């Protein structure tokens, strides 16, 4: 039995962290398994997808494995409603992290504030907030790094 069969035994924080780690490892099957059928995903204020298939496809295109996505998680916190022991309760998990994307020779690295709503061990809503200034800076450094590899960002290790 693989670890993905135990997601109902995991805390909401575990589900959020394992989701990010599975994307970084290129394990689309585990990431997909942690999504609710009606999941919604929003990045920087824009709804990217709704439904497990669409969200999985969108995330796999970006993360895709082979070292294209990595993450350093700096903090994880959660709000657990008093009814969290009952089926159907929604936990809210917040992550503060640094994402690193490699798109060919371009490396993009930026701070992300993520919020996940988790019900019955499945992610129902995933929202990533990234400031416009942060993205502009990451894009500028990423473009410069394509011609001057020494300025490429390196993911901090926590």
Secondary structure layout:
Elements: H1 12-25, H2 28-33, E1 35-43, E2 46-50, H3 52-63, E3 69-79, E4 90-103, E5 106-119, E6 122-129, H4 132-147
Characteristic key phrases:
six-stranded mixed sheet, 4 helices, Nuclear Transport Factor 2, Chain: A, 158 residues, alpha+beta
Classification by helices and strands: alpha+beta
CATH architecture: Roll
Instruction: Report the span from N to C terminus.
Output: 30 Å
Oligomer: single chain
Instruction: Give the overall shape, derived from the CA principal axes.
Output: elongated
Q: How many individual helices? A: 4
| Major sheet characteristics | 6 strands, mixed
Q: Over all CA atoms, what is the radius of gyration?
A: 16 Å
Here the CATH topology equals: Nuclear Transport Factor 2, Chain: A
Strand order, largest beta sheet = 2-1-6-5-4-3
Query: In percent, how much strand structure appears in the residues?
Result: 35-45%
The H-and-E topology, N to C, reads as: HHEEHEEEEH
The count of strands amounts to: 6
- The low-confidence runs, each spanning 5 or more residues with pLDDT under 50, are none
Mean model confidence by pLDDT: 86
Number of self-contained structural domains: 1
Helix share bin: 25-40%
What does this molecule look like?
This protein is an alpha+beta fold and 158 residues long. The protein has a single domain (10-149), classed as Roll (Nuclear Transport Factor 2, Chain: A), CATH 3.10.450.50. Helices cover 30% and strands 39% of the residues. It contains four helices and six strands. The chain has helices at 12-25, 28-33, 52-63, 132-147, and strands spanning 35-43, 46-50, 69-79, 90-103, 106-119, 122-129. It has a six-stranded mixed beta sheet. A hairpin with a 2-residue loop joins strand 4 and strand 5. The protein is elongated and about 55 Å long. The protein starts with 11 loop residues before the first helix and ends in an 11-residue tail after the last helix.
